[in-house]
Amino acid sequence: MPIPFESFIPFAVIAGMFVVTGTGIRYAQTKRNEGKAVRYSLDDWDRKMMVRDKQLTGTFRGQVDNPIAPPEFKVNSSWKVYESLRNDFA
């Protein structure tokens, strides 16, 4: 005669794997975003500000309150590379 609760062990294993997977995904997202919450529904403005923050601080989530940009901000734009490539192939 089977025991009525013999399916609890496989159920606990499956539920435990869901918990481990969800926790791992949450940890990876938090680590990627420097401990901040994940950003949802980004529009063009948010993406441009993320690129600006990357140029100013070196990370997409880093922000500075200094109103004057550092001197290397003038030369770390990808548009200069794009313009030189465009002129080479034109």
Cα gyration radius (Å): 24 Å
> Which blocks of ≥5 consecutive residues have pLDDT under 50?
none
Helicity level, as a percent range?
55-70%
Structural class: mainly alpha
Question: Describe the biggest sheet?
Answer: none
**Helical run tally:** 3
**What is the mean predicted local confidence, pLDDT?**
80
Could you tell me how far the N terminus lies from the C terminus, measured between alpha carbons in angstroms?
Answer: 82 Å
Gross morphology = elongated
Strand proportion, as a percent range, falls in under 5%
- DSSP strand tally: 0
Helix and strand succession?
Answer: HHH
Concise structural overview:
It is built from 3 helices and no strands. The chain has helices at residues 8-32, 44-57, 78-89.
Explain how this protein is built.
The chain has three helices and no strands. It has helices at residues 8-32, 44-57, 78-89.
Give me some keywords for this one.
90 residues; mainly alpha; 3 helices
SSE layout and pairings?
Blueprint: H1 8-32, H2 44-57, H3 78-89
